[in-house]
Amino acid sequence: MDIEAPGEAKELPKIHRLDESVVNRIAAGEVIQRPVSAVKELVENSLDASSTSISVVVKDGGLKLIQVSDDGHGIRHEDLPILCERHTTSKLSKYEDLQSIKSMGFRGEALASMTYVGHVTVTTITKGQLHGYRVSYRDGLMEHEPKACAAVKGTQIMVENLFYNMIARRKTLQNSADDYTKIVDLLSRFAIHHIDVSFSCRKHGAARADVHSVATSSRLDAIRSVYGLSVARNLIKIEASDNDPSSSVFEMDGFISNSNYVVKKTTMVLFINDRLVECTALKRALEIVYSATLPKASKPFIYMSIILPPEHVDVNVHPTKREVSLLNQEVIIEKIQSVVESMLRNSNESRTFQEQTVESSPSVPSITNNESHLNPSPSGSKSQKVPVHKMVRTDSSDPAGRLHAYLYKKPQNHLEMNSSLTAVRSSVRQRRNLRETADLTSIQELINDIDSKCHSGLLDIVRQCTYVGMADDVFALLQHNTHLYLANVVNLSKELMYQQVLRRFAHFNAIQLSESAPLQELLMLALKEEELDLECNENDDLKMKIAEMNTQLLKQKAEMLEEYFCIFIDSDGNLSRLPILLDQYTPDMDRVPEFLLCLGNDVDWEDEKNCFQSLAAALGNFYAMHPPLLPHPSGEGLEFYRKRKHGKNPQDVGKSSCDIGDDIEIEDEFEHKLLSEAETAWGQREWSIQHVLFPSMRLFLKPPTSMAVNGTFVRVASLEKLYRIFERC
Ligand code: ADP
Ligand code: MG
To answer: Which ligand is nearest to the CA of 40?
Structure first.
């Protein structure tokens, strides 16, 4: 008995098995995303075959032809039939081998994939053979028996008509002419890491190679020959390592650009266990150090090679193996970050000397920091092992709140600090053409004041602490060793901004206001607000006068404000630019009026040192991470956003019982626009506290002694004690 209407059965989608060639083509499209990914796979195969010379020829951005020739060990005649089948590899046999994999390939997918989306021809000869073999492949299979042919040592793989059967992909790639650039970039990266291999890359038919490196024993020579003298002469050698299983085990060495190197785009060449990979977290971490440490916020050139125990690296997380995941990634990144920071500071120091001496002999690579290896560096200081009972972890699914269970002490070297100040001063002086040298003594004195008032215990907390989260509107919860602290983020950010103003003095990048703001109106606004606060009553005429006077005063000081503090006031009395004190952070623009009034009222314009100090303090107060003016949209603060009229409206009285449901809904109605504004403001502030304030404090803040007693830091609990309590439970 059939109760199903025949029409209905037809409408249900039927599941059927995809044709194998379709499956393979889809999979291949994932492994070989664009011509450059094919080149990467082919070059990696050549490297795995112990080649010492690899040359690449490309036609039409790789769509017409990619040809990679090497002088490696070649492919055995008997392996040729299965060479291009999926999952055929000579590099892995059991899953466990993945743990110790040293070669770049292991999935046996690359060559197979190429045959599903292009025409592949392999010519190869192995040691001891009189002749080589040539064979073409399609869809994983040989098109014919291998033909004997003359061949030079190694293997040549030719991929023609890539994506001939993927029309959409071919079209998009045809329009973007930049794949050849990507291939050149890729080869350049390989060339500066595998310095014992010579690489070349050229367009088909071109006489000149666009990458040409010869095997060398010096990394710096390789970088010079590939990236040019302008990069190579501005590099600093870096090294770091750790060998403590409770925190991290790694060795890193590399070259990073110094303060003389000024470009707009970061170049980060990263090899982990000799594998060319990307690590966005590390790249971001280093960019932050650069933008914050160097007077002229430049993007870096970084070459870095990190070696880890193979079992600490998961190479199998990405279809093109472009990304890898590391054990203890955060710890490693932090350690590298601090080494880079200290090297950069030292490089800043030698900058002036370097410019004077090197100018006469520009060919000398300017690695000026050999002496800095004598300084104790964080990399040299071994982590102290943390007893297991002191290890503390929060939820690991929330990395932001993860509590690190490691400690290591940064050496305090006062000499180092002093000389770095001298360097800052001299580089500032240099930029200012020695014209106003005298001006800067006062800045120097103010910075010295900061250093001499620095509290070493608090400095240690600031540098080593872990941010747990915000405890309320003003206090953040921190963990340092086995103690928990509450720290006042308003005070901390105010001080940090103040110190940044002095440190970046005359070298700020600018925040451009979308509309320039008339000083006089802003000052009026501020005066009115002040009146509300103080409950005094001046008449509007008087306020106008004060606003006008202050506007005149600020206009008179405009040149100085612009030159030293990047506060731009035009001749009509409009404010259009403010300084960037910390990357990725703009102050709360609602506080501009108050700030301007403060410039007018609180700044001492007579004495130079007082003037700079009070101006820095005014900026510090303006940029501090105050709670937003709108109340926090949760808990009691939420009341503020509830629509006023609810429930109590006279017309509600006497509604029938079936309206009760509506009443409840109305009760929950909020001023949504205001509410979402508040949510954004608070959310942004919390983001900035976590991602800007704390990382920057760790790098730059010298906490003054006063913070130890004025309630900025409050110790709330010792975890050891808490554990004892828990143990008793
Ligand atoms: P995988 O590299 O993951 O093993 P591939 O598909 O890239 O997979 O390559 C398959 C196999 O072909 C390799 O394991 C290797 O044995 C061999 N092979 C590929 N290219 C070369 C080459 N240039 N020289 C020698 N052998 C090669
Ligand atoms: Mg491979």
So the answer is: 2
